[in-house]
Specification:
Shape: flat
Order of helices and strands: HHH
Radius of gyration: 17 Å
Number of helices: 3
Structural class: mainly alpha
Largest sheet: none
Number of strands: 0
Oligomer: single chain
Helix content: over 70%
Length: about 70
């Protein structure tokens, strides 16, 4: 059952999208090695990294306003 679900996800391209997000977290945001220990520390660090990633994406979507003189 698990293998069939995995194959179905692979065919939709959703898995690639998720893998690319994790690759970005690891390479660009430096989450290759976690600095905090324990389940709570890991969850906090990952949440902060995911928030930073989402804010970067949001900043790219928002149009730049002209500077007021």
């Amino acid at each position: 059952m698990f293998k069939s679900r995995t194959r179905a996800i692979r065919k939709t391209g959703r898995r690639k999208k998720v893998e690319m997000l994790f690759a970005h977290l690891k390479r660009i945001l430096g989450l290759g090695q976690l600095r905090l220990r324990g389940p709570c520390g890991v969850q906090d660090e990952f949440t902060l990294a995911a928030t930073a990633q989402n804010l970067r994406k949001l900043a790219k979507l928002k149009p730049m306003l002209p500077a007021a003189d």
